[in-house]
Each structure stands twice: as structure tokens, then as C-alpha cells.
Amino acid sequence: MGQNLLVDKFYLNRIVRAADLKNGDSVIEVGAGLGVLTEALIDQGAKVWALEIDSGFFRSLQKKFGESDNPVLIHADALKFDFPGLSKKIGKLRVVANLPYNISSRLIFMFHENREIFSTLDVLLQKEVAERLIAAPGAKEYGVLTVLLGVSATVEIVFDIPAKAFVPVPEVTSSLVHISFPNTPPVEVSDSPLLTRLVKASFASRRKTLRNTLRNTPIDGLTPQILTISANQADIDLGRRGETLTPQEFARFADAIKANL
């Protein structure tokens, strides 16, 4: 039971208000813990699908909510759960959750990879992780997720939550982050999987130039000649480092590579 549980009702209510839930809205909660946020979501009129991997927490949830059909309790690993299958049953998914901090970045990446079935995420993250999602190009916090969300989503840090609002009290401040995946993304890209491979490769060696990094981190079909031609077409200087490119530049670069493969 390593998760820090938010128990302060003031902040729980702020999260529910910020999520702007309507009566009957379906919500996915990842890492339901002891069900405190779950209860607040239900009180707001939401239909909650509560995922919890920890057996002890799950037994507590069963005891707390008994035989009620709200929430729907799911004993599962969120990283392996069939979200597409659930989406087929209930439509676009909304997430409101205090994400387990040890896997929060992996969860955000998974949500991004499946963004066609998610509409919004209102999630608690460590403040440093939240700031990474909105970092500017060139900043040390700027990374793969920053770029991918910059292309596909709108991201906002809504407010911070002090450590004292949690049990046990963590050593870090938390932030509520709102992520929206609009039907028309902020930046259009022709091949999202190629963009993801390009961005990951470009950040593989942060201190190296794009020319050296991309030659040492192969992308299928991307020869040195195609790399040079594509960079010229996209107006990308291969002498730059990957972390200096904006999401728009990465998208333009990926589109040029796609056209030349």
C-alpha cells in the first residue's frame, strides 16, 4: 500500500468541481485507494469505474461500497486494463484520479497512446511531473511526453495541493492537471507512431545533436540521406539538439520523413 491517499475534503471537493462533472457522467478512477475520492465523485452524481490493483485496498473498497452498482469496482492493473473494451460499452472515457506516483508517467503515456478513446484527464501528479508536461523547449524538464502532449492535447496545471492533504504525508507537493484530447489536435501530424519513434529517438541522448542521435538510434527506413533531405524540407537544423525542437517542429519533421520513406 505505497500510494499517498488524498483525504482532505477541501481539496477533494475542489478536484470534483474542477472536473466539471454532470449528473450521470461516467468517470474512470485509477488507483481508487480507500474510496475517498470515489465517494466524492459519486456524491457529485458520477457513475464511477474504480480501478485498484492493491488487494488490501480492494477489499476495503468492497467493504465500503458493499453490493452497490456505483462504483463498479475493478481489481486490475491499469497499465494492462482493457480501456478500449470499456470505451466500446460506455463511449469516450473521462479520468478523474489520484494517479499512483510511481507509474504516473507511464499511465499518461498510455492514455496518450489511446487518446482516441479518452476525452479528458483530471489527474493528480507530483508537481515536478506536472511541470514537465508543460515545460518549454530547451528546459531540462522538457521531454518526450511534453512533445507528444503538445501535439495531441491541451494541458493545464489547475492548482497545487500541499503534502499535508495526504496520508501518509509525502515529501512532495502535488498538482491537479487537466489534459484534454480534442477531436482536432493542436498540431496535425500524418503518422503518429512515426512521430513517437522520432521524438523518443531524439531524446535518447540529450547532449548530442539530432544528426548524431538519430544515426545512433535507428528508425526503420530512415537512412542518413533521407534524414538530411527530410530535415532540409522541414527546415530543421540537424546540428540542434532534440530538446530544442518545439512540438510543431517535431510534427513538421516527422511529416517530411514520412513523405520520403
What would your notes on this structure say?
By secondary structure, this protein is an alpha/beta fold. It folds into two domains: 5-180, Vaccinia Virus protein VP39 (Rossmann fold, 3-Layer(aba) Sandwich); 192-260, rRNA adenine dimethylase, C-terminal domain (Helicase, Ruva Protein, domain 3, Orthogonal Bundle). Helices cover 41% and strands 19% of the residues. The protein contains eleven helices and nine strands. It has helices spanning 9-19, 36-43, 55-65, 83-90, 104-113, 127-133, 144-152, 192-202, 210-216, 224-233, 247-260, and strands spanning 5-6, 26-30, 47-52, 72-75, 93-98, 118-126, 154-161, 166-167, 174-180. The strands form three sheets. It has a four-stranded mixed sheet, sandwiched between helices. Strands 2-3-4 form a three-stranded parallel sheet. Helix 5 runs parallel beside helix 7 and helix 7 (144-152) crosses helix 11. The termini are far apart. The mean pLDDT is 94.
Write the layout of secondary structure elements.
Blueprint (H helix, E strand, L loop, with lengths): L4 E2 L2 H11 L6 E5 L5 H8 L3 E6 L2 H11 L6 E4 L7 H8 L2 E6 L5 H10 L4 E9 H7 L10 H9 L1 E8 L4 E2 L6 E7 L11 H11 L7 H7 L7 H10 L13 H14 L1
Parallel strand pairs: 2-3, 3-4, 5-6
Antiparallel strand pairs: 1-8, 6-9, 7-9
Structure at a glance:
By secondary structure, the chain is an alpha/beta fold.
CATH class of the largest domain: Alpha Beta
Q: Pairing-aware structural class of the strands and helices?
A: alpha/beta
Number of discrete helical segments: 11
CATH topology of the largest domain: Rossmann fold
Main sheet: strand order: 5-6-9-7
Write the CATH architecture name of the largest domain: 3-Layer(aba) Sandwich
Shape: elongated
Q: Can you tell me the residue ranges where pLDDT is under 50 for at least 5 consecutive residues?
A: none
- What about the largest sheet? 4 strands, mixed
Task: List the secondary-structure elements in sequence, H or E.
Answer: EHEHEHEHEHEHHEEEHHHH
Give the rounded overall mean pLDDT: 94
Indicate the proportion of strand residues. 15-25%
Number of domains: 2
Give the tally of β-strands.
Answer: 9
Between the first and last Cα atoms, what is the distance in angstroms? 48 Å
CATH superfamily of the largest domain: Vaccinia Virus protein VP39
Radius of gyration: 20 Å
Estimate the helix proportion, in percent: 40-55%
